Amino acid sequence: MFLVVGKTEAQIDKQATKETKALYQYLAKTAKKNILFGHQHATEYGHGWAGDADRSDVKSVTGSHPAVIGVDFSGLSGRTKEQIAETAEALRQNVVATYQRGGITTVAWHFPNPASGGGFYWKDSISVASIDLIKPNGSHHEKYKEILRTIANFAHSVKGKDGTLAPMIFRPYHEFDGDWFWWGKSHCSREDFIAVWQFTVSYLRDTLGVHNFIYAFSPDCKFTSEQEFLARFPGNEWVDMVGMDNYADFGRDGHYNLALGIKKLKIVSDYAKKANKLAAFTETGLESIPNTTWWTETLLKALKSEKMNLAYVLVWRNDKTSPTHYYAPFPEQVSVPDFLKFYNDPYTLFEKDLKNVYHRKASIQEFTNKQK
Fold this sequence. Notes:
The chain has 372 residues and is of the alpha/beta class. The chain has helices at 18-30, 57-62, 81-101, 131-134, 141-157, 190-207, 226-229, 258-275, 294-304, 336-344, 365-368, and strands at 35-40, 45-46, 49-50, 68-72, 104-108, 168-171, 213-217, 241-245, 278-284, 312-315, 348-349. Strands 1-4-5-6-7-8-9-10 form an eight-stranded parallel beta barrel. A two-stranded antiparallel ribbon has the order 2-3.
């Protein structure tokens, strides 16, 4: 028997902080009428710049930061203690700044392989299949616990001026249905993947006392049915949000299959409604954005179809040095006019539209009446 959609009982952490519960409710309510726009690494760096205070390429174009800022825990393991500490402090400042502005943070985890070289990608000549090794009783389980303690310490450090902890949407082991990461489908069994997911949540939440995470499950787009989508699902009691990463159907390498992309999004949204979970389009985008109407004719059209309840959509990062690796516009980029239409559409919300995200009694009118 499923609970009524929108009730906080759906959260898997019954001891979640007041602000984290409020964010969960806010996202659930917002998804019924609007969608938040997100951008990975938006305020850390952008096209041709890095480290500037209160800057993002999206803000340079629209006057507002994205509503959702993506960061990454990739630098919190596999390096020296000094490097990890330096990375954690920079990341802490970023997350706290977003929280103080009233924005929302989502965390990806490009997790360096804890048992071999090769980084987070799978490299045939180097990488070791490590999910089996980091699960309980595995040879690298204690090392994994040490890494999770570093993440917990970070989660306990992101305090705002009032002393409250910034909530974060934590999205570990993403795109697990592909083979490009060491935790990918061909590199571990379903049972081991689920065991590691469940241990990760339990250890952070129940042992280390992390209560400011919302846990997000997001495969890539290699499914066309609910059964395939849930093939490695760890269970409703271990997931707060379901999502999907999908570049393939939205223009990558010139390939568009909008109908299929919408079908997959609807599978995600329908499951969330049925299981009383949040849903999101956790990653997408078109590299270099050569399509001058991509924002309204591809992305917005898909998001508005089928009466889906999606809390946010996030596009990937803008590299600071590459002339072509970017997914959000910057001043004078060819898709700027269309992006401004996307920004001004009443359906989309950016950071300046957000009110009282972390207060549970926020009225729904506060985020449906946009002031742009």
